[in-house]
Amino acid sequence: MAGTMCQFMADIRTSLSGALRAALVAAGVDLPGDFQVGLERPARREHGDWSSNAALVVAKGAERRPRELAEELAAWLGEHQPEHVADVSVAGPGFLNFRLAPSWLHRVVLDAVACGSEGYGRQSLGRGRTVIVEFVSANPTGPVHAGHGRGAAYGDAVARLLERCGYRVQREFYINDRGSQMDLYAASLAAAQKGEPVPEEGYHGRYIADWASEMPAGADARNWGRERALADQRDVLGSMSVEFDTWSSEQALVDSGVIGDTLDALDRAGASYGSDGAVWLRSSDSGDDKDRVLVKSDGEYTYLLPDIAYHRDKLDRAGPEGLLINVWGADHHGYVARMKAAMSALGCDPDRLEVAVTQLVRLERNGAEVRISKRTGDLIELREVLDEVGADAARFTYLLQSVDTAPTFDLAKAAAQVMENPVFYVQMAHARVCAIADRARAGGVVRQPVEEVDLGVLVHERELEMMRRLSAFGEVVKAAAVERAPHRVTAWLRDFAAAVHGFYHDCYVVGDGVAPELTQARLALVTAARVGLAAGLGTLGVSAPESM
RNA sequence: GCCCACGUAGCUCAGGGGAUAGAGCACUUGCCUCCGGAGCAAGGGGCCGCAGGUUCGAAUCCUGCCGUGGGCGCCA
Asked: Between 1.10.730.10, 1.20.1600.10, 2.40.320.10, 3.40.50.620, what CATH number should domain A418-540 receive?
């Protein structure tokens, strides 16, 4: 039953676009087979609750004047009004503006209460399709740093969004536990243990000395170091509630022998060739700048070859309909073309591999830049960020902006417990809404079941605004999932929280001057607000505290 | 030099074919009998980097240029 309730927002769009389509047909317009009725929420309130540009889009093909056509459509719609529509008008060059009765917003309250925070805003576009989201995948040569934090927050939020849209999601971490970087790491640990200077090309972070001092005498620096780094990474990521379903080891992949299969497959496909004693991938045939080495002249695999085998394996695990999403840092963007080239060469649809590239984060503390530099040793570890600002603020701040931007993350501002801090502002809205419900309970208010409450008394502009914002959540979730853009949810939360604070300020729920039936209706609205805030925060992996 | 992303209010950033371009901070000014004023509201502030093009319509799409960041290893 709750499932059908949650379809309400989809229904209102369907109902409006269906009516528009019927109006167009009645007006004698021939619609293209793939015609989609444009329907959006106007930026300006006076343009109504929903608006369509259908007349503008169709006018040219129909050889009609947009404004005249719009007038005709409006007249027809006036005689055949869909449910909840109070008024249809024409504006500007030919926009059709729908003004809805408050009853459509009252349905939104029922919808939210019925769905709960886990169900509200759920979409069905995933239809059970498998998607493997690979993110963080830091080298096991040291702690995860602040830059990985962004990938962690982003990858996990994308996974959560996709889950809310009906995808079957696997979170995966790829361990690059092989190759020259691992050699250098092991050599650095071994040298530090013996009190010798670490190799110049090695790792110089302070953690090397710390970990070397923990390392038992006679331990294999490579294996011990790998486990030490992974344990550290797992621990830190876990403390911001990022958990992976699968940890895939490059070394294990190599040991299993599947690399040779991949090499053979590339050879059979004519995608590789030998030159200068090395084996090369013809990636330049598929849009890459140049060809890339798969097997070095000393017989060692490069990073690329096992990674191709790994992606082949992932595609296989995801199934024929499955999708791969990789979250890579900006320093790996040049790697996208060659991986896609390899996928094409192996006969896989390169569109099944998506790579989201996250730009670098500039880290500040009270306006002063803090450099992130893994190799030189003055790196800011993710652990430090979490200790300073907390997991909730870190996640929310990482997700404040699009991953296409290189934002500034001020640790001091993110940690501040003030309303100017968007994390605090949004969480505070949730806490306030919970406080109201507590207060009503403490005041002896007995709540009626929502379906028996007369929501028709909710007509205050603050209430309407809150319900309007709430009603957009499902569309926001869908857009955020499709665009792999969790920051859209962050932006929505800030707007919705502002509406909640406004309501809180102007609309008392319990108190002397509030009629009992209004208290009941507002308590239902408060529950709906709690659902919306908790649902939004939940898709970002941020907690919704009941008090602060 | 080539490749990718970005350039929007003083600052941090949303918006990514549609109507008069938005939010927070900062600045000016109002509002506390009562659910937490840790708040709410009003105001000032914009060649949407520049120049062309496509379109009924461009901050949004295309091309070029300028600027910023990142990448261009038989490292990972």
From this structure: 1.10.730.10
Residue A380, pLDDT score: 85
CB A248 within 8 A of CB A291: no
> Which nucleotide comes closest to A439 if you measure CA to C1'?
B35
Rounded, the Å distance between the CA of A308 and C1' of B16 is: 34
Report how far residue A265's alpha carbon sits from residue A261's, in angstroms, rounded to the nearest whole number: 6
d(CA A493, CA A399): 12
- A4: confidence class by pLDDT, cuts 50, 70, 90: very low
Residue closest to sugar C1' of B69 by CA: A406
Q: DSSP of A458-491, one letter per residue?
A: --SHHHHHHHHHHHTHHHHHHHHHHTT-THHHHH
**What is the CATH class of A130-358?**
alpha beta
Q: How much of chain A is in helix, strand and coil states, percent to nearest 5?
A: 55, 15, 35
Q: Which CATH number fits domain A2-101: 3.40.50.2000, 3.30.1360.70, 2.170.120.20, 3.30.1300.10?
A: 3.30.1360.70
Per-residue pLDDT tens digits for A52-90: 998 888 887 778 888 889 999 999 999 988 889 999 999
Dist. CA A166–CA A477, nearest whole Å:
12
Tell me the H-state helices in A301-457.
304-318, 336-345, 382-389, 391-398, 411-415, 422-442
> What one-character-per-residue DSSP string does A111-162 give?
HHHHHHHHHTT---TTTT-EEEEE-----TTS--BHHHHHHHHHHHHHHHHH
Question: Is the Cα dihedral A393, A395, A396, A400 positive or negative?
Answer: positive
What is the number of other CB atoms lying within 10 angstroms of the CB of residue A376? 10
CA angle A85, A97, A110 (to 5 degrees): 40
Strand A130-134 relative to strand A168-175: parallel, antiparallel, unpaired?
Answer: parallel
CATH 3.30.1360.70 boundaries in chain A:
2-101
The two tokens of residue A233 are: 């990474």
Protein CB footprint (7 Å) on chain B nucleotides: 2-7, 12-15, 18-26, 33-41, 56, 69-76
Q: How many CB atoms lie within 10 A of CB A157?
A: 26
Q: Which nucleotide is nearest to A405 (CA to C1')?
A: B6
pLDDT tens-digit series, residues A401-439: 999 998 888 888 888 888 888 999 999 999 999 999 998
Spanning CA of A201 to C1' of B21, the rounded length in angstroms is: 51
DSSP string for residues in A270-290: T-EEEETTEEEE-GGGGT-SS
Write down the ipTM of this complex.
0.92
Phi, psi of A259 (to 5 degrees): -60, -40
- Tell how many helices (H) and how many strands (E) occur in chain A: 21, 14
